[in-house]
């Protein structure tokens, strides 16, 4: 798979902090998040629920819930800071330059309008086209996200669609404004396992067709391994580790990344026990001092409890762990070899499927 | 005492008093919590106090009336408020305050009686909801039909055939309320009947009567209390409405609705004569509605607190 | 998926058969019509049974104790009392469905003719009242929902609870006194037909209309507010924002559309209230509608007319509720899943 460095960043998140109104003053939800999304590449933002990954996605579009707001930081899209952008200009970005797909496809579509209307509405919000043109474009888009018989389906309501089909509609809505960036917030979580793979492949194919930069928010390391180029691991409102997927998965520098990987069925060899991470992610009101992961970390030392670790640049990855430079676990070393081989096989199969899909996509494009 | 007489009654005594089923105990606990919640709810307290006051007035009316409510003083008609007649006199020179006090009991009495008659719908609803099938189908259809006749109009029609009297007023509003009580009881009974513990109770040989009384009724109590409270308010409103139409309790017995109607018919260009009775009617209805809302809230919170 | 056309049950209109009618909007609509007809049948029977409530012999009640035997026999015939009970019932139901409600004892005119004269007055009042209800209710409800917790919102929520407790005729009496008697801005009583003078028609209906609307508009506003606030919290609103729609677009197109269906149901219930309340409000404002016809008939013990008034009002309520239901089926694409 491609490497990270060559292309210029499309979307950059710098030092993003988000806070929520709490009963006892503002509550910090995320802190100092730095992310970079490049055209044609996929950044995975992975973490347990409550780590702040979804809020980060919402903040990038300025669609945070009413009680939540950005405290500091920038979201740079081609040089403009979206956080500082007035609402009117931001609206052109939403659905225009950045499209977004949400976790619950059925609840994310308006039940009272046909799916065709909902796609066409987005087209008309961002492009100067007539009602009729928008309608035709909507059918084309539905076809593009591989909804069979799009002409008929455009006239149906969301409740007449399965979850997977709804998510395809959501994708069509997200792509309606011809965006450069796609933010997908847990796009497969609510779907049947059988549909998940197809959905991921579709996102991947569309990305290659349109050279999209994709931010894929997920809790599933398996998904990350399958489709992402880079990965940012989030824990308790902070990015714990960020770097190329291959590096992070084969030799995780942060104990949390390692633990997440080992807790993923895909990454665990058959017959081996799945490693659960002890304890739970604390709520934002109860984040520990020092390293936020230390209460759950098997490698924690006194230093981890006392001081918050700095971010270290190690090769192509950045890590927020005081002990990242020590070559830590045998466990991870062991696994890394396994993973390398697994990954490479994964890569090859995926490439071949990608290729065939691409041909298909080209066919669609030619029509 | 012989050993026989001691041992004989013992086994039934044991089987007759099993520990109360868990659900029942929970229900009892919830009800006490509901009462506590009600007592900390300010609007509910105000309503309760006002209702208590109104009831006291109804009971001790003869002690409180400054004048004979029926005595006409034709030289003093339509007088404004003054030291002799605190709220003035009506079109026949009768003391308004005394008539209001005298009218409290009939007003309340009709309201309560009407609601009691309406409660015939409760056992019907419990049966319908519990038995389902044809019984529920027929009763449900009938109650739907009755519900589609506007309440005031229905009462109006009933009075039209039965004739005017305070008893008939109560009967009319009572009949109007029956389908409303039926609906509430039926819904509650049906939702309880679907619960698993009902299955268990049925399997352990509980008869339908016992099931209804021990399981369905305690669980339907909340919604029924809410409905009762609102129903009394509706009755007061309908009763007053009938009076305004000239179809309420016939004179000379004073009722608040009747007094409002008299003031309107005989003194329509003045606003003050209508106010005392109108205000009392509104306050009485408001008390019952507030109480109903508070009971619903208290039950709602108790349900939520349980989870 | 989900495209099975309506399978129309073989002719039968009975409830059970109707319930088996398949999904699809036409099926749902057909089911609603069927249940409305059933309800109507129940109402007709109930209205018939009302006469059983008359203490003693209805003919004696009408004609008085000293009436001659011939007169009593004639009245008995007029009331259908000379037939066996069951036949009376069948006869009444049959005639009711063929728009024959008997003859007025007082006026010796067909009841339907009298009702036809009074109906436009009552309908005018209902239409004006519903118009006020919609305008006031929607405006207040939207304003309150835009800023939950604002003074307007709190006034509305508190005020509607109080408004519910105020019987409409009390409001009517007060409005009449202030605006018509004291200020003289509007006519106190009386009705002008629309065809004669539309302006006077309307001015005469402003006060009674507002009276009836006071309660229902509070209820509509409260419901709309709740629905709008609920809708605002739904996931799809976030999608709409994320795809770059403007707030007015999100609110007026999407949130409104989704809040409309439950609000229509409320509107239907309010219609029933308005028609019921109209009976008494007509009396207050001297409008010669169904209510007045009914009161006159009651005082004269003109039983066929009383029955007719109750029946016509109930039919109106059922018909309007059916209409609301059908619009709801159309508005809410998910109805056919229920």
Keywords:
heterotrimer; A: 367 residues; alpha/beta; Rossmann fold; eight-stranded mixed sheet; four-stranded antiparallel sheet; 12 helices; 20% strand; globular; disordered C terminus; C: 338 residues; mainly alpha; MetI-like fold; 13 helices; 0% strand; disordered N terminus
Q: What's this model, at a glance?
A:
The complex is a heterotrimer of chains A (367), B (307) and C (338). By secondary structure, chain A is α/β, with parallel strands linked by helices.
Task: Report on the architecture of this protein.
Chain A: Residues 13-261 form the ABC transporter domain. Chain A: Residues 330-367 are annotated as: Disordered. The complex is a heterotrimer of chains A (367), B (307) and C (338). By secondary structure, chain A is of the alpha/beta class. Chain A has a domain at 40-63 and 82-236: P-loop containing nucleotide triphosphate hydrolases (Rossmann fold, 3-Layer(aba) Sandwich). Helices cover 38% and strands 20% of the residues of chain A. Chain A has 12 helices and 12 strands. Chain A has helices at residues 53-61, 87-93, 115-126, 131-144, 150-153, 163-175, 193-210, 221-227, 245-250, 255-262, 302-306, 330-366; strands at 11-20, 27-37, 42-46, 68-77, 80-81, 98-101, 181-185, 213-218, 230-235, 238-244, 312-314, 317-319. In chain A, helix 6 (163-175) runs parallel beside helix 7 (193-210) and helix 7 crosses helix 12 (330-366). Chain B has one domain (38-62, 87-304): MetI-like fold (Orthogonal Bundle), CATH 1.10.3720. Chain B has 14 helices and no strands. The model of chain B is unreliable at 1-17 (pLDDT under 50). In chain C, helix 6 (111-146) runs antiparallel to helix 7 (151-165), helix 11 (247-285) packs antiparallel against helix 13 (303-331) and helix 12 (290-299) runs antiparallel to helix 13 (303-331). The two termini of chain C are 16 Å apart. Chain C has 2 domains: 11-97, no CATH class; 112-299, Orthogonal Bundle (MetI-like fold). The A-C interface holds A 58, 61, 63, 91-96, 99-100, 102, 104, 107-113, 121-122, 125-126, 157, 159-160, 162, 170, 173-174, 176-177 and C 1-3, 234-236, 238-246, 249, 254, 257-258, 261, 331-334, 337.
């Amino acid at each position: 798979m491609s490497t990270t460095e060559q292309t210029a960043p499309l979307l950059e998140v710098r030092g993003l902090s988000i806070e929520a109104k709490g009963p006892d003053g503002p509550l910090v939800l995320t802190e100092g998040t730095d992310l970079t999304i490049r055209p044609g590449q996929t950044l995975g933002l992975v973490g347990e629920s409550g780590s702040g990954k979804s809020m980060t996605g919402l903040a990038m579009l300025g669609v945070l819930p009413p009680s939540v707001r950005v405290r500091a930081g920038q979201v740079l899209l081609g040089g403009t800071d979206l956080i500082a952008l007035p609402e009117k200009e931001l609206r052109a970005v939403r659905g225009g330059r950045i499209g977004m797909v949400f976790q619950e496809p059925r609840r994310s579509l308006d039940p009272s309008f046909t799916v065709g209307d909902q796609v066409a509405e987005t087209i008309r919000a961002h492009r100067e086209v007539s009602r009729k043109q928008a309608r035709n474009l909507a059918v084309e888009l539905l076809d593009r996200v591989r909804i069979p018989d799009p002409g008929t389906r455009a006239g149906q309501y969301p409740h007449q669609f399965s979850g997977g089909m709804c998510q395809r509609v959501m994708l069509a809505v997200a792509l309606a404004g011809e965006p450069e960036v796609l933010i997908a917030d847990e796009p497969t979580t609510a779907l049947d396992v059988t549909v998940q793979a197809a959905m991921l492949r579709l996102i991947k194919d569309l990305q290659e067709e349109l050279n999209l930069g994709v931010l894929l928010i997920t809790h599933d390391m398996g998904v990350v391994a399958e489709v992402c180029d880079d990965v940012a691991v989030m824990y308790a409102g902070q990015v714990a580790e960020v770097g190329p997927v291959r590096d992070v998965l084969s030799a995780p520098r942060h104990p949390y990344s390692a633990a997440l990987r080992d807790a993923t069925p895909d990454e665990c060899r058959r017959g081996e026990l799945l490693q659960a991470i002890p304890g739970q992610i604390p709520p934002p009101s109860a984040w520990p001092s020092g390293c936020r992961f230390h209460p759950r970390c098997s490698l924690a030392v006194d230093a981890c409890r006392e001081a918050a670790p700095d971010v270290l640049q190690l090769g192509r990855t950045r890590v927020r762990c005081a002990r990242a430079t020590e070559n830590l676990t045998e466990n991870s070393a062991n696994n890394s070899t396994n993973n390398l081989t697994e990954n490479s096989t994964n890569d090859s199969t995926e490439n071949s499927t990608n290729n065939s899909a691409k041909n298909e996509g080209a066919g669609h494009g030619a029509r | 005492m012989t050993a026989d007489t001691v041992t004989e009654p013992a086994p039934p005594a044991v089987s007759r008093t099993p520990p109360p089923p868990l659900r029942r105990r929970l229900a009892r606990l919830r009800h006490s919590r509901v009462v506590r919640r009600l007592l900390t709810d300010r609007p509910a307290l105000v309503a309760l106090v006002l209702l208590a006051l109104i009831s006291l007035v109804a009971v001790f009316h003869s002690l409180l009336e400054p004048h004979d409510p029926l005595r006409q003083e034709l030289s003093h008609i339509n007088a404004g408020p003054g030291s002799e007649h605190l709220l003035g006199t009506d079109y026949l020179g009768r003391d308004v305050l005394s008539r209001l006090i005298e009218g409290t009991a009939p007003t309340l009495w009709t309201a309560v009686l009407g609601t009691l008659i309406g409660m015939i719908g409760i056992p019907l609803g419990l049966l319908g909801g519990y038995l389902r099938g044809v019984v529920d189908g027929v009763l449900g259809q009938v109650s739907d039909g009755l519900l589609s006749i506007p309440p005031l109009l229905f009462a109006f029609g009933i009075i039209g055939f039965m004739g005017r009297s305070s008893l008939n007023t109560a009967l009319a509003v009572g009949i109007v309320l029956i389908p409303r009580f039926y609906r509430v009881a039926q819904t509650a009974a049906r939702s309880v009947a679907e619960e698993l513990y009902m299955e268990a109770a049925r399997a352990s040989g509980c008869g339908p009567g016992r099931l209804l009384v021990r399981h369905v009724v305690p669980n339907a109590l909340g919604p029924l209390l809410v409905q009762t409270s609102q129903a009394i308010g509706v009755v007061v409103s309908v009763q007053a409405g009938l009076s305004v139409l000239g179809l309420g309790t016939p004179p000379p017995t004073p009722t608040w609705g009747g007094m409002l109607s008299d003031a309107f018919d005989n003194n329509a260009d003045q606003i003050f004569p209508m106010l005392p009775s109108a205000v009392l009617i509104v306050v009485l209805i408001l008390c019952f509605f507030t109480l109903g809302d508070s009971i619903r809230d208290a039950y709602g919170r108790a349900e939520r607190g349980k989870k | 998926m989900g495209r099975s056309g309506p399978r129309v049950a073989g002719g039968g209109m009975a409830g059970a058969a109707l319930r088996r009618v398949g999904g699809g909007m036409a099926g749902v609509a057909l089911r609603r019509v069927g249940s409305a007809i059933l309800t109507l049948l129940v109402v007709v029977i109930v209205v018939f049974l009302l006469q059983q409530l008359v203490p003693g012999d209805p003919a004696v009640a009408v004609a008085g104790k000293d009436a001659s035997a011939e007169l009593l026999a004639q009245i008995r015939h007029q009331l259908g009392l000379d037939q066996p009970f069951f036949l009376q019932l069948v006869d009444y139901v049959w005639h009711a469905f063929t728009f024959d409600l008997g003859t007025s004892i007082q006026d010796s005119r067909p009841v339907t003719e009298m009702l036809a004269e009074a109906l436009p007055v009552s309908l005018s009042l209902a239409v004006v009242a519903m118009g006020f209800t919609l305008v006031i209710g929607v405006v207040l409800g939207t304003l309150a929902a835009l800023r939950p917790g604002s003074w307007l919102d709190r006034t509305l929520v508190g005020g509607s609870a109080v408004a519910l407790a105020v019987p409409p005729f009390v409001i009517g009496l007060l409005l009449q006194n202030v605006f018509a008697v004291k200020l003289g801005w509007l006519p106190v009583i009386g009705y002008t037909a629309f065809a004669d003078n539309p302006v006077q028609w309307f001015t005469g209906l402003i006060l009674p209309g507002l009276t009836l609307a006071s309660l229902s508009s509070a209820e509509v506003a409260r419901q709309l507010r709740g629905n709008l606030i609920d809708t605002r919290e739904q996931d799809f609103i976030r999608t709409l924002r994320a795809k770059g729609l403007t707030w007015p677009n999100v609110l007026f197109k999407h949130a409104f559309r989704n809040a409309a269906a439950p609000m229509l149901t409320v509107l239907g219930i309010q219609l029933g209230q308005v028609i019921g309340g109209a009976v008494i409000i007509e009396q207050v404002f001297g409008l010669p509608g169904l209510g007045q016809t009914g009161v006159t008939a009651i005082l004269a013990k003109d039983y066929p007319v009383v029955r007719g008034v109750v029946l016509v009002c109930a039919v109106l309520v059922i018909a309007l509720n059916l209409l609301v239901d059908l619009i709801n089926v159309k508005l809410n694409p998910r109805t056919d899943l229920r």
